[in-house]
């Protein structure tokens, strides 16, 4: 089969992008996502498919066709790589657990195929509530492959806290994800004491956002509080993105 390029399917038979729901070729997917992921390429998408992370359907001629669910799944994979630095093995587990299945939030005047709209609205942290399952230390270790010593170290340095419930210390879903990330970092020799700088950074950013939005978040007007929570989520996503860009800029100096 000929190499798939951005014009891999003749124009007359090419599925159109947009709100029609029709499938996209691999080249069209690249065009759609390049605004949010500048390093995306056809070969990278193929590699993710080879790793069984993507499952686009094929035409009788062997061309890949991506539905909206495939594109959303690809977005999730790329964001987990870019924003959380997760290896493919962990990303596969996250997807199997349903990560990234929540619907995107798009305003009535937004183009839902716009990379800018996707970046601004679909990856905001969900701040309103953590919820989920409470886990004891033993269950947390089973779930994340952390050692009890690592969990103790993370608690000692204030990275996770846990809370008492029915006579035991338990951890919610947010802290499970923190421990899971710490397990990955521990493989590179990063311990709880090293993570204090990230804890301090998060505290400072939280204080800044509270200074900006605290009065509205404490308002007695429910609509104003809802608007403030929405703004808080957007600001949190933007600050995370800025931190990522600053980190990448500094790390590139190491390999220049």
UniProtKB/TrEMBL annotation:
Compositionally biased spans, kind Low complexity: 10-20
Keywords: DNA-binding
InterPro entries assigned to the protein according to its UniProt record, in alphabetical order: DNA-bd_dom_put_sf, MerR-type_HTH_dom, MerR_fam
GO molecular function, one term: DNA-binding transcription factor activity
Domain HTH merR-type: start-end pairs: 39-97
SUPFAM superfamilies to which the protein is assigned, alphabetical: Putative DNA-binding domain
Location of region: Disordered: 1-20, 99-129
Domain of life: Bacteria
Protein name listed in UniProt: HTH merR-type domain-containing protein
Organism (species): Patulibacter medicamentivorans
């Amino acid at each position: 089969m000929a190499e798939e390029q951005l014009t891999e399917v003749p124009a007359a038979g090419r599925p159109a992008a947009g709100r029609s729901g029709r499938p996209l070729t691999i080249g069209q997917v690249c065009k759609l996502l390049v605004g949010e992921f500048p390093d995306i390429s056809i070969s990278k998408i193929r590699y993710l498919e080879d790793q069984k992370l993507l499952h686009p359907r094929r035409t009788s001629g062997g061309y890949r066709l991506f539905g909206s669910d495939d594109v959303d799944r690809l977005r999730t994979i790329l964001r987990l790589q870019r924003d959380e630095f997760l290896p493919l093995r962990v990303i596969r587990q996250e997807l199997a657990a349903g990560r990234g299945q929540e619907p995107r939030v798009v305003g009535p005047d937004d183009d839902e195929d716009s990379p800018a709209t996707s970046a601004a609205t679909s990856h905001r942290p969900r701040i309103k509530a953590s919820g989920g399952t409470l886990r004891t230390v033993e269950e947390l270790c089973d779930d994340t492959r952390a050692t009890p010593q690592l969990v103790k170290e993370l608690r000692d340095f204030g990275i996770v806290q846990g809370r008492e419930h029915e006579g035991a210390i338990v951890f919610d879903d947010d802290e499970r994800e923190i421990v899971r990330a710490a397990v990955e970092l521990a493989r590179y020799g990063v311990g709880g004491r090293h993570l204090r700088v990230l804890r301090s950074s998060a505290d400072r950013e939280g204080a800044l956002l509270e200074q900006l939005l605290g009065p509205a978040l404490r308002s007695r007007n429910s609509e104003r509080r809802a608007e403030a929570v929405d703004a808080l989520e957007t600001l949190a996503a933007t600050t995370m993105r800025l931190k990522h860009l600053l980190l990448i800029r500094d790390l590139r100096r190491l390999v220049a």
